[in-house]
Structure prediction request, 219 residues.
Amino acid sequence: MSIPKSYAALQGAVTKSFQEELSPTDAIELLRTGHQRFNDNTPLKRSRIALLEDASEGQFPYASVLGCIDSRVPIEEVFDATIGDLFVARVAGNTVNPDILGSLEYACKYAGSKAILVLGHTSCGAIKGAWAGLEDGNLTGLLAQLKPAVETIRATRSDEATAENIDETVAVNVQMVCDRIRQESDILYDMESSGAIAIIGGVYNVATGRVTFLAESEA
Prediction:
């Protein structure tokens, strides 16, 4: 039985044995097939009681998603995931800091998650703020982390904050965050290098509801 079919056959939450049998490629396939169900409007149905009972005894998520706080991107729903399926970290601009990295290290090294997906989205307000040079309170430092992506697009396309440039910046930022995870976490870099996990990027289109998975950036 294929991994997606085995997942669909689960009656309750993801089990330790199911998680341990997954490869990083399998985990990514579960994200992809879950997203296809989201777009097809054919979500799986599992007993809420069984999910809660199983999850109360432990959690074995197959993947971790680092996303933006944007309310238009309901991450679990986008991947037709439920209780116990995913670790989800959210911060404006889906960037990283020591707390996010520590959370991802825990998710992968200690809780068995097999993949990290950095998920940006079109029309991102944080990216727009970085383009505009917004400085206000704690936003100043957060948006500064997005400026390398902004400068890349300014240098290669134009200085105009067009919708196309904003969305190109989103994709570049996702790739940069994937690289930063590798560069700033020895634990996650080593796990990816050994084949224990995969680190990938994607962009969710808020108008169409579709995720474009990006090619992995170079470490």
Notes: The beta strands are 63-67, 86-90, 115-121, 198-204, 211-214. The chain has one domain: 3-214. The first strand starts at residue 63 and ends at 67. The longest helix spans residues 163-184.
